[in-house]
């Protein structure tokens, strides 16, 4: 036996003037009392009007201009009531978005979580000064005061953004065509060994995207097998599609490129890894080349001149005043740090840019 088809009922626009009813979110709502009917049937709408608002026929005769105007007024009043509920929601959404954007700005500039409260206090002082006499100044100040930038709120915002970035990275890994990995292990100021893994992805439209994949701490030793086990565990846990791997880039440390016990050797000996290319990091190569090319005949006099200018406070102040008077490109010289790879190039570039000013000062 065939099932009986369910009959559907539709709202008719002429009911607004005839029975003072309108459609709100697929429901028939009375414009007079706000009641709703179960089904959008003419009989239900007519029965409600004749039972509860029969006097409206006498006050506002059917098909008259007075009745049309009354229906328009009631509908406008209902719209205003609905807007009262929409505005707080929209206002709350904007303050939440502002909180996220302000948190991103603070963290991007390496500020602590507690600095959000100081930032908000300064923002409120500016708002009360600038918008005090403006037409909508009170509303602006009230909205700014609702922006949450407390320490605990900032932590939640950072956590939410971090989780969102992780989800985006996982989605990119699923949609990318190929990817390559760069791995580098270093020791931080607390003597903790931490391999950093960067990933560069290529998509079907030949666009590329590079992200920090992870930072993995090593608890004890930093041998090639330790780095391999740590990185492999992470890749398996995050379900990274290793079949898309095409290359790896590392430095020249034995723990990385050792022929038998290095990180690359362990990866190539693992059947889960496909056949991939291995490259030596260009920055490491440049740092090594700078040490063996014999650059002392340039760096030694440059460092001596810089130290002679910056070693004494009075002489250093006079030099900075000279640079300001001459409208130099830079306001000061850089000190050379041997342990930083890029320090030598930056120091020489700054010194060469200020060479004329240095000659005049000397």
TrEMBL record:
It comes from the Eukaryota. InterPro entries: SPIN-DOC_Znf-C2H2. Pfam families: zf-C2H2_12 (PF18658). Residues 13-56 form the SPIN-DOC-like zinc-finger domain. This is SPIN-DOC-like zinc-finger domain-containing protein. The lineage of its organism: Eukaryota, Metazoa, Chordata, Craniata, Vertebrata.
